[in-house]
Amino acid sequence: MRLLIVIGLLLTPFSTSAASGMPVVSFGLPCLLLAAAAGFLRPSTDAFLLTRSTAPAMLAAAASVFSIAMLAFFAPDPGRSLARVAPHVICYLLAFQLLARFRRHPDELARFALTVIAVSGAVLAVYYAIHLALAARAYGANTVIVERYTGGLAALPWGSTNVIAAALIFPHIACVLLKQGYRCRWTTPVLGLILLAVLLTTSRAGTLFHGAMLLAGCVLAGRFRALAAWAACILLLLAGYAHFARENLELLISTRLSGERDLSNGRFDSFLMKWEYISDNPMSPVGYYGSMATFDLSSHNVFLTVLVEQGVLGLACMLLFLGACLHALFYHRSEARRERRMRRLALAGSLVAFLNLMVEDANFTQPYMVYFWMFFIATMAFVMHLGAAAPGARPACRSGVKAWQT
């Protein structure tokens, strides 16, 4: 099961092409589906047990996934919507099985989940750098930089450049947690690859939020020398690019930061359009992933997107899910320095990822969904580890329904 998950995460950055006219599917999804199926082929009562600390979050996650699945059938193109429902369902089943089977070894599960996210992020970073280099060689660097609408020539088959930067947030967080919680030295060069890929996307939001995560991680971990070193490396990289590609740098600045283009890329107008629609049609959601077909432009704001596509019920399920995850992180207290630091870093990373969704709709891409759910698994495993380490904690586990009632 774990081998299939590893293969699935390694293949997650690669996908089919949108040119075929069919929904874009990540190559890692079939392996994850096989992993979920393999878990059910091994019948055991352990596969259906949850701890009291994680049961509310798992039940709230089930409600959110159910809302997404049901509203997909109301979208203008149910086929494309269901292609985005599949990763949620598959990864939720994986989360349920892994958290149940590893409940006696939660720290092992947390490290495994974080490791596969970080390694997959490194693969994505290298893949994007090679893709960008080939595009620049074929069409010229100026052309690749200018043609950036929905990613343009710099985009990967499954997402534009800002979406790629958003998906790399979870590998970034995983590297920080592995470094601080498990002393994994190999995460430093992996994080360097991720940050390089983010800079190559020239995504303003991606650069801002990755910079915020880097700052938060170093400050919360007390690694101010590391922060200075990362800042110096990034400045040297930018200085080198400015020296060898002056015209490209001027073109990049003029297209990304000047008044020649709307700095919001139409996002503000999209906000107003969606708000007017939901104000006039509060009981008529357009269906999961229905914004693109209905308005030709998504909301680029997670609250408005969920409200327009899933209605008040869908928004309530999402808020319940977020609240249950936050409750789980504070369900157990720990005086150990390592656990306190990892809790703070996990919260900081979750906040950065959520703030990014306030200006992006990266959550509609399959790699982002897979990384999100694997990070959710790591977080819930950490919660179980806190429960096992808490003074007076009882090792007994109950089913999800009984745990919720308790």
UniProtKB/TrEMBL annotation:
Residues 1-18 form the signal peptide. It is a multi-pass membrane protein. The keyword Transmembrane helix applies. Keywords: Membrane, Signal, Transmembrane, Transmembrane helix. It is found in: Membrane. InterPro entries: O-antigen_ligase-rel_domated (IPR007016), WaaL-like (IPR051533). The chain crosses the membrane at residues 27-45, 57-75, 81-100, 112-135, 155-178, 190-215, 227-244, 312-330, 342-359, 371-390. Residues 191-318 form the O-antigen ligase-related domain. Its main location: membrane. This is O-antigen ligase-related domain-containing protein.
